[in-house]
Amino acid sequence: MVDKVPKGHRLVMENRELIELTGVRKVQSFDPKEIVLETELGILSVKGEQLGIKLLNLEEGLVDLQGFVAALVYHRNSGDASRRGFLNRVFR
């Protein structure tokens, strides 16, 4: 069987209103002002207004987001993000 999970990570943003992502491992948190994703290249925070998840397919590592995007923040990687505690991830 062919491995369908994309290797690496890709982000395409259109008009600050739609983001298409590949290489997403999981959604760590979600609310209309911030979505935090674990990607192949580390933790990504998407901040904005009226944010929503349009497509979620973690089997293939695909996520599409919509809403007004104010900021994209990649957090420093210090080991495997999935093994660190919640407070360590928040207060890096």
Automatic annotation (TrEMBL):
Coiled-coil region(s): none
GO terms of biological process kind: sporulation resulting in formation of a cellular spore
Protein name (record): Sporulation protein YabP
Organism: Desulfosporosinus youngiae DSM 17734
